[in-house]
Amino acid sequence: MLRKVVRSSKFRHVFGQAAKADQCYDDIRISQMTWDSNFCSVNPKFVAMIVDASGGGAFMVLPLSKTGRIDMSYPTVCGHTGPVLDIEFCPHNDNIIASGSEDCSVMIWEIPDGGLITSLTDPVVKLEGHSKRVGILSWHPTAHNVLMSAGCDNVVILWNVACGEAVVRLDTVHTDLIYSACWNRDGSRILTSCKDKKLRVLDPRKGTVIVEKEKPHEGSRPIRAVFVSDGKILSTGFSRMSERQVALWDPKNFGEPLTLQELDTSSGVLLPFFDPDTGVVYLCGKGDSSIRYFEVTDEAPYVHYLSMYSSKESQKGMGYMPKRGLEVNKCEIARFYKLHERKCEPIVMTVPRKSDLFQEDLYPDTIGPEPSAEADEWFQGKDGQPILISLKDGFAATTKAKEFKVHKSLLKTTSSSAGSQQDNSGEVQSLRKEVKDLKAAVEELTKRVSELESKH
């Protein structure tokens, strides 16, 4: 009898563990919207969740340390007039978050360091350009202040947030609703999946389709897709018999998938989260109570099933912590923030190791918060590679000067025309007062000179 050889992998024994009750965020009314976005965004400072709000849309931003029961009157970010559909923290500044809403607008908010003291209603920037609700947001991974938004008007817009304008508008590419849109590692390509059953790889600045794949999955339910290692594409979708599938594609040869696996017959859309450092992809089904994880490698069958984290309660949304927010000394390789009906529960993925030393094979240099290009440079054609940081001594935050610069560049263009007129009128008034004072001083001096002359 032939013995089956088990493929060796350092991630074969990765296990997920939910945080203890006192480490969860309780009594939060998570949004009841049926939109297929993550509903949650996290970074090393804050966790943000879309919540139910009467008369408009709102989301809550909590410092990571503020666990336990959250008071009903806790302040929210509530400037939208329609429900919020997607939120995402800026990768280059942990205090900046973008939100897209049913009111067709995108808003950029600045969260103070200790969290909110009063509710936020005025955004730093309001971006208007979509004619229908905005359901997808994604910050550029390497260029500072570049944001992509996709709306139900089948339009993708690339914004220069620093000056609040839409620089690129892709309005002829998609013929139907856009299901997902994401960047590749250096932000030189965009990958979209659409209701017209096509995957498209786009040149973001030219607005052209580089390559497209018709019907990556036969079923009619939503398809999700992300870039993985070496420019390959991982997609999740449904078969004609409504079985959930995961497939891996090589865009250089889009004819047949490198691998196509059937998973189960659940109806929830699978949200993929890919970690480029470890090559592990996590599939979190909306409405599921489990997270499956796979290792993506160069050898067939390319996508290797590792294990599954299961719990009793289903997830309404999921936040994924950037690598620099993880606890390295505990061999933590991923952390999710799972949204229940009334709470947010952190789930930690760990590689069991006996040693307390830094595990270099688990933590290669990872993407840091420093951008490698400014928005103007990127729109003019500069591609910046991600600036990597070592996690060996734990991640140290960037200097205050950097953050201040970011805020200034965001703020300098955001005051409405009325605000700038107000500033100008104030400036004019102070100048007039100075002129008046100078005139009075000159008159006084002239008077004294004439008095002295008459004496002599």
Automatic annotation (TrEMBL):
Biased composition (Polar residues): 413-428
Pfam entry (one): WD40_4
Annotated DUF1899 domain residues: 4-68
Source taxon at top rank: Eukaryota
Disordered: annotated segments: 413-432
Protein's name in the database: Coronin
Keywords for the protein's UniProt record, in alphabetical order: Coiled coil, Repeat, WD repeat
Originating organism: Seriola lalandi dorsalis
InterPro entries for the chain: Coronin, DUF1899, WD40/YVTN_repeat-like_dom_sf, WD40_repeat_CS, WD40_repeat_dom_sf, WD40_rpt
One GO term of the biological process aspect: eye development
